[in-house]
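>> received
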Amino acid sequence: MEHIALYRRYRPTNFSEVIGQDNIVKILKNQIITEKIGHAYLFSGTRGTGKTSAAKIFAKAVNCENHGTGEPCQKCETCKAIDNNNIMDIVEIDAASNRGVDEIRELRERVKYPPTVGSYKVYIIDEVHMLTTEAFNALLKTLEEPPKHVIFILATTEPNKLPTTILSRCQRFHFKRLELKDIYSRMDYICTELNVQIEEKTLKLIAKNADGAMRDALSILEQCLSISDDNMVDYNSVKELLGISGDQLVYGLIENIIHKDIHSALNTLEQAYGNGKEIAQLVNQMVVCLRDMLILKVTNSSDNLMEASEENTNTLRELSTQVENELLSYYIESLAEMESKIKYSTLPKVLMEVLLIKLCSVGLSTNTVTNSNVEIAQDKISNRKPIEKIIESTQSKNNRQEERKQAKGNIDFETLCNTIKKDRPLIGTALEMGTCKEISDEKCSVAFNKDNSFHYNTVHKNRQYIEDQVKKLINPNCYFNCGTEEKGGDDFLSRTKEVFGEDKVFLTDK
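>> returned
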């Protein structure tokens, strides 16, 4: 017996089986009942949302001998002939392979002839955006004034690529992504029909990974049935098939980022990758979890907005208390950007490792170095005795300048940052990453390197809050400003030139 894929076997045959598109179905049925049928329709929307299925049902209904309810009766000879593809009046054209002007000219010749059986000849042109400009021009006149017995139904996933002259001549219907509950209920019905035992959470997992497309959901379900034993689909097998990481692994990775534990984060990623988990899928899961955490912080309730299950909500709520809204938003934006890069990369794991290091480093001072680095630097300095005097000279000069600046105000920059960090940790940490140019009774000025845009943007967005703190801590008349500057070169060299003059300082290799 010939095997038929699930999405073909359970393709809707009447409007009542079309899920998630109630408004469109209602309009089409009313047009059939009142016999106010248009000559051209445009069905647009993402894949697997029912565009072609609705077009075929509509074509069958307008030719049905008993269409009083707007539904095809499925009993008359016309309905049976259409279901068996034994009628010439319903023509389905794939525009991807018939995109030239010659094919459209041939179509224009065929539409002149009346239908052989039904009331209408219906032309369904799938992926119509693939037609060439010349083909669209050839179709235009026919689409504008077709014979009374002809209906055109254009289907596309990219309506923005269609000429406005075509769009203006069609009744447009946008098929939205299917909701999770609609996909779940349809798969539950199919599993019951097939006598398949499957848990609710497994069906929801498949529905979630279908991305709003019924066809994708049924394709995944069919794969799951292929690896199941005795018509029983196991939850863990489905997760393995989809390359999905466990919830605890994802939560652990997010916790590592929040606590800035780079070593643990990289180890967790290595563990997931070693177990065959897809990096793209992992990034997607992290984005969803972080989004749930942000919603919990903003709304303080889960309601129907949460993607996570009820048992995982408390874990996410606890994690969300350890991080600020601004930082959560930054994590989500960074991961979403990475998701698009991974699609075209041959080294997704390397990109993910770099991103984890970047996310774990947010808020860490650039002056924080390891003990080994300090020792190496000290050894290098001790081997250059003539330069020590220069260092002492420049340091003493800087110290005197710093003392003068602090003498004018009531507080130094470090104390200002620490005070703000107690109330708003993210803002205080971001401010700390800048260079204090001046702090006095009149002004507090901070500059950021241009490559440090995240911290600059955080400070710039909250400059009014920072200025309020400056006025409280330093002087009511003191104002705050911040800006960016080019990343400096060798600060030590520039300071040395200031002390001795550019003509007296040379670089030599020892």
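>> The chain is about 55% helix and 10% strand.
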